[in-house]
Amino acid sequence: MQLKDFHFDLPDELIARYPTEQRTASRLLRLNGETGEVNHSHFYQLVDFLEPNDLLVFNNTRVLPARLFGKKASGGQVEILIERVESDLEAIAHVRANRSPKPGARLVLEDGSELEVLSKDGALYELKLLTNDWHSVMQAVGHMPLPPYIDREDELSDKERYQTVYSKVEGAVAAPTAGLHFDDELLAKIAEKGVETAFVTLHVGAGTFSPVRVDNVEEHKMHSEWYELNQDVVDKVKATQAKGGRVIAVGTTSVRCLESASLNGEIKAGSGETDIFIYPGYIFRSVDALITNFHLPESTLMMLVSAFASKKHILNAYNEAVSDKYRFFSYGDSMFITRPFTGQHPESLTEKESFIKSSLEK
Question: By its UniProt entry, which Gene3D superfamilies does this protein fall under (predicted)?
Answer without folding.
Answer: QueA-like (3.40.1780.10)
